[in-house]
Amino acid sequence: MDHFLDVVLPIPLERLFTYRISPREAEFIRPGMRVAVPFGKSKIYTALAHGVHQNAPTAYDAKEIYQILDEVPLVSAIQLKHWKWVADYYMCSLGEVVRSALPGAFLLESETLILPNKEAEVDEMGLADDEFLVFEALQHHSSLTIAEISDIVDRKNVLALVDRLVQKGVALQREELYERYRPKLVRYVKLSPSYGEGDALEELLKELSRAPKQSQVLLALFQWQAKSKKPISIQDLERESGSSKAVIKALVAKGILEEFHIRKDRVGYEGESQGSGTIVPNQYQERALEEIGKGFAQDRPVLLQGVTASGKTEVYIKLLQKCLDRGKQSLYLLPEIALTSQLIDRLRGYFGSKVSVYHSKYSIHERVEVWNNVRKGAEKAQIVIGARSSLFLPFPELGLVVVDEEHDSSYKQFDPAPRYHARDAAIVLASLHRAKVVLGSATPSLESRHNVDLGKYGHATMEHRFGKVMMPEIQLVDLKEATRKKRMKGHFSDTLFEAIAETLEAGEQLILFQNRRGFAPVVECTTCGHVAQCTNCDVSLTYHRHSQQLRCHYCGYHMALQPSCLACGSHTLDKKGLGTQQIQEELGQFFPEASVGRMDQDTTRGKYAYEKIISAFENHETDILVGTQMVTKGLDFRNVGLVGIINADSMLHFPDYRAHERSFQMLTQVAGRAGRTKKRGKVLIQTYNPYHQILQQVASNDYQGMYAEQLLERGQFGYPPLTKIIKLTLKGRDFNMVNQASDWMATSLRNVLGSGVLGPEYPPVARIRRDYLKNILIKIPEGRSLSQTKYGIKRIERSFNAISQYRSVRLVYNVDHI
Ligand code: ADP
Ligand code: ZN
Ligand code: ZN
Questions:
Q1: Which of 556, 517, 537 has the alpha carbon at shortest distance from 653?
Q2: Contact predicate 135/165, CB 8 Å
């Protein structure tokens, strides 16, 4: 009987691929193991075993697999189920989920190696210069990689050169698979057993009396052994003896010392921990814990809605402890791990070495180690803190998922596929494990709060800051008036300016927040603050420089850019927006004594860049921290007396149906950084629209009012959470083809789905790299089946794919686009 294996290849194609395997392999292979398979012309790929069967494929001849890479499944059955849900729900291929879920080091790909052809008689005179260089190099190396050949001839594209070398018989070509993960080995030394004790040792010391440096090393080794049972690494011995590697090597060479290796995890923590018993919840935390317990008992996720500094983190810590006590693992999700060194320290303070961290700034090696630790249920992987991708780790026994700052939009992956929302995918994962979920925020997303109303989530609230700390005092500052009365100093109103001066004088710190405008500039009047709106969609119009138009990027409504403000008639239209760097420069002029730190995209590129900026502010090395949305996230500073928002309007007018919700969240969060200890903190919000509902709601801390009003608007204009949306983007190099294809697509979608289809329309940035983009927004009203709608879309996609002239246009789905 023939045996076949279906595998998932880490590529965008939706189908599984079938390979031939032997009966013994069929017995051995389990779903979730990796196998290396030939694919395409000559490449070897890593694929994931999906299922063994006896049905030969009808459309093609099954090739044999190349090699089985694992002895036990790397990916569990629950994971495979979860990943299928992700692929299905977010409309991508399982292979794309695999590619993004597995640490890169697990996805070996073959590498082309060039070897010398020992048999050949090479006519050196017949070789071109570059050929000769490679030929010569091959005399000294057993093999060369393509990259090495590039280096030798000092140019990028060398495939033609390699072809010629193979043709002329100078070289051979071979595909090799490489394991990219290498365990980190630490080198240790010990005294050779032949010098064990007594005479031999005395003899040895005598012998070395004329080699003082070497005896110094030996003495250091003895001293170490006298006080510690642990082996000594070469590095430690070097330090302890004040000697060098060379001296230690000489002793090894003489056979006096022996070298050995110990495998060491790169990820580890060796500090003290106090256990969470020291936390005594206050009455509000007690009550929240009770409510959470009730929700858990009904198998519902619970939304923990607690004002900033109410002590949500301590509540999570109590829940983590309970989960730990039940012997299960927990996952603590954060929107952006780089910002949260603070939290990691806090959790390690309680749980010590039981905490592992997992995120994309980790090296491939570190990620493999965390993966393996989680899979084995290792002691150090009982609690995993991570960004959204840690959702794909191989938990055998997941008991609890905490989604901190659940409203944060960075939980949604934008590019590449799978374009998943980590909060929602976490809830599905938890249900597969029958694990508990708690979603926490001071400013829940409308989605989550709405789910409370629908009875899908439980609800726990904490309305007081911990330890009688007062909520900050929030004041709105009218920029229109300050401008009219000529009371502006640069971008600071006199009110903000004076508050900064007072705060600095009192020896306190302050945070200034300026929203990043992103890629969607709107045109704002700097006299009255007016921004033109789309009449159909309730969003700001986006400025398109090339056409000098203002356009709605949902429905296509547009008008010509006017030379003067439509509301007040003045010519002060601002198309650029204000950056954090400019604020920093102005501060330098006005407050030369103060030291200013800046946190934005430009200053946070390096691996530890965030940590440095944050710790400088924590240690009061900087007085003022100027930043974009990054400063809003979960930071707990002790000494912040003032938070200033330079211009709240750029947020309010962001061309997005969520602009109001987001403004509320961002402003409340950044205000929450003020006065987290005894003294009441102060927040100043500069705006041209001091009577805007959202700003009033921020100032009076009225989440409920914001929620009710926004939900009403979403209903009127047909947006989530009262509808579901799928954004379909068409991409291609050929402008006309993208236009034609999107018209075809939109028409077909309308035929099937009716009026909920908006566009096609150019996005705010209509060309990215060399691709032209066009969007179609599909709204799916409550009550219509999401899966049936997707099925309908997929059918249209199949017809689309059959039209040859559209072949160069790609389709990208973004389900629940935010
Ligand atoms: P949130 O996450 O809600 O913004 P935090 O968890 O950061 O609030 O709590 C705010 C401050 O109060 C922190 O400094 C925290 O250590 C302290 N705190 C909260 N709960 C307790 C508690 N039960 N015992 C001692 N300190 C607490
Ligand atoms: Zn105006
Ligand atoms: Zn519109």
A1: 517
A2: yes
Q: Using an 8 Å Cβ cutoff, are 144 and 134 in contact?
A: yes
> Could you tell me the distance, in angstroms and rounded to a whole number, from the CA of residue 338 to the centre of ligand 1?
21
CB 171 within 8 A of CB 138: yes
| φ and ψ at residue 420, rounded to 5 degrees | -100, 155
DSSP per-residue string spanning 552-584: -TTT--EEEPPSS-TTT--S-EE-S---HHHHH
pLDDT at position 539 is: 82
Closest of 778, 768, 761, 777 to residue 551, by C-alpha: 761
Determine the Cα–Cα distance for residues 624 and 653; give it in Å rounded to an integer.
27
Among residues 520, 536, 542, 533, which one has the least CA distance to residue 566? Answer: 533
**Which pair of tokens denotes residue 699?**
């100032």
CB atoms within 10 A of CB 636: 15
| d(CA 277, ligand 1 centre) in Å | 15
All residues at 6 or more sequence positions from 478 whose CB lies less than 8 Å from its CB, including other chains: 687, 688, 690
Residues facing residue 239 across a β-bridge: none
345-395 residue pLDDT tens: 889 989 988 999 998 777 777 888 999 999 999 999 999 999 999 999 999
Both tokens of residue 206?
């005598």
Peptide bond connecting 418 to the previous residue in cis, omega within 30 degrees of 0: yes
Q: Rounded to whole angstroms, how far apart are CA atoms 650 and 474?
A: 19
Residue 657 CA, ligand 3 centroid: distance in Å: 10
pLDDT of residue 675: 83
Residue 573 CA to ligand 2 centre (angstroms): 8
Sheet of 383-386, strand order:
355-358, 383-386, 329-333, 398-403, 436-441, 302-306, 458-462
Query: How many angstroms separate the CA atoms of 26 and 21, rounded?
Result: 6
Task: Count CB atoms within 10 A of the CB of residue 63.
Answer: 13
Of 490, 442, 499, the C-alpha closest to 683 is: 499
Please tell me the distance from the alpha carbon of residue 172 to that of residue 174, in angstroms, as a whole number.
7
| Cβ proximity of 75 and 394 under 8 Å | yes
Report the C-alpha gap between 453 and 458 in whole angstroms. Answer: 9
Position 534: which residue type? Answer: C
Q: Is 34 in the pocket of ligand 1 (CB under 6 A)?
A: no
Ligand 1 atom, smallest distance to 312 CA: 3
Residue with tokens 């290498």: 182
Look at ligand 1, atom 23, and give the residue with the nearest C-alpha.
281
Q: Closest Cα partner for 755 from 721, 774, 779?
A: 779
Copy the structure tokens of residue 646.
């330079």
At 636, list the tokens: 């707990």
Residue ranges of the chain whose pLDDT lies below 70: 41-42, 110, 176-185, 196-198, 229, 263-277, 338-339, 517-520, 576, 607, 634, 769
What are the strands, taking DSSP E only, across 434-536? 436-441, 458-462, 473-478, 488-489, 492-493, 509-513, 524-525
Please choose, from the candidates 818, 79, 91, 1, the residue with its C-alpha nearest in 3D space to the C-alpha of residue 410.
Answer: 818
80 φ, ψ (degrees, to nearest 5): -60, -40
CA trace torsion 763, 765, 771, 773 (10° rounding) = 0
Beta strands (DSSP E) in 265-419 are 302-306, 329-333, 355-358, 383-386, 398-403
Question: Closest Cα to residue 545, out of 567, 575, 578?
Answer: 575
Kindly report whether the global pTM for this prediction surpasses the value 0.90: no
pLDDT tens per residue, range 278-323: 789 999 999 999 999 999 999 999 999 999 999 999 999 999 999 9
241 close to 216: Cβ distance less than 8 angstroms = yes
Tens digits of residue pLDDT in 228-239: 767 788 888 888
Smallest CA-to-CA distance from 536 within 762, 758, 761 is with: 758
Where residue 704 falls (left for φ over 0; alpha for ψ -120 to 50; beta otherwise) is alpha
Tell me if 280 CB under 6 Å of ligand 1: yes
Q: How far apart are the first and last CA of the chain?
A: 51
